[in-house]
Amino acid sequence: ETGVTQTPRHLVMGMTNKKSLKCEQHLGHNAMYWYKQSAKKPLELMFVYSLEERVENNSVPSRFSPECPNSSHLFLHLHTLQPEDSALYLCASSQDNSGSGANVLTFGAGSRLTVL
Amino acid sequence: AQKITQTQPGMFVQEKEAVTLDCTYDTSDQSYGLFWYKQPSSGEMIFLIYQGSYDEQNATEGRYSLNFQKARKSANLVISASQLGDSAMYFCAMNDWRGNNRLAFGKGNQVVVIP
Questions:
Q1: Contact call for A41 and B107, based on CB within 8 A
Q2: End-to-end C-alpha distance for chain A, whole angstroms
Q3: Intervals of chain B under pLDDT 70
Q4: How confident is the model at residue A101, as a pLDDT?
Q5: DSSP 3-state assignment of A85?
Q6: Fewer CB near the terminus (10 Å): N or C of chain B?
């Protein structure tokens, strides 16, 4: 496979469930990202991992827990979510050369999450 | 902090015609990059084109060109010879080279190409 792959594509969960979103990149990139896309709002950056270390957490509630076991895989663990967390969650990767200009992100197709 | 503004309502464009999508940005930095992404109904964000703030020529990639007007802080996307497959949401984004290089996105423009 090539590019960035996200699973599952669709997920419905109750507020008391625990689930995980998975992201895998086959591009040899050194940075991975989680974004949240809600209706009528710009994409919101949630977490950034660079060289498998979390380098950014944009005030995301603790019910979202990221994990990056290696440079190719990124998870988003979900527990006790709220209905307002329903959104499209996009994973992306890049070759992060901070300060050098073009940091082109390659995105996956997203995981559509519905919290009941 | 950077801010991206995309205010056009949804657009209908005739197949084979050109369409311009507006994007204005606000930053106090001199070094930054501007990006356009396309998001079809499948959900995947697809990178289209990039313009660096110091690039003197407008970027072009196939049917996509970026009309960069630095003094006006605008980075409009022009799609020439529209195709049915161009129907999608289009997002303008920018990053700050001296900062953490993270992309900030606008709210997007909806484009529907009609035959």
A1: yes
A2: 33
A3: 1-2, 97-101
A4: 61
A5: helix
A6: C
